[in-house]
Design brief:
It contains six helices and nine strands; from the N terminus they run E-H-E-H-E-E-H-E-E-H-E-H-H-E-E. The protein is an alpha+beta fold.
Amino acid sequence: MRKIILASASPRRRELLERAGVVFDVIPGNGEEQVTCVLPQEIVEELSLNKAMAVAGEREEGTLIIGADTIVVYKNRILGKPKDEQDAIQTLTELQGNTHQVYTGVTVLERKNGKWKPYTFSECTDVAFYPVTDEEIRSYVRTGEPMDKAGSYGIQGLFSIYVKGIRGDYSNVVGLPVARLLYEMKKTGIDLRSGGKND
């Protein structure tokens, strides 16, 4: 059985992988989030690679490392985690009544012949919100839930009652497009659900 490592401290990503039947260890990457790309899909792919590489080092042959990064984009502008409550209110005021995009980049590093071989892809999902009042937004922000989340909300949290519709992969919005990850790896001959065994 190969060693599989999730290079993320996100409890949501951990839960998604566990539910998919993948056995893995968690070693969060503390790499610098330096970006040289401009397009959203390229940014998340670059960041996911950086996160995976941050925990790579010298590991045993066959080891697999999964890195991921998620961003929220509205009108070609990246909406990161809010700086404070006012920032969260401003972001959610923009998003309410509109449709935005959630991009997640995923990189799987495979230790092969003493070197790291990367497999990288990105997924995009459209999320639409119903109109939300100022008071509803303020009430949500007061819960503290949006403060560590890109776009100032969690799709699986309290703000989910305002979601009008999703076009694409739901788990991508949570933080990891698991079905796509399993599919992409199977195409390379790696079955993550069988301990990373080759087909």
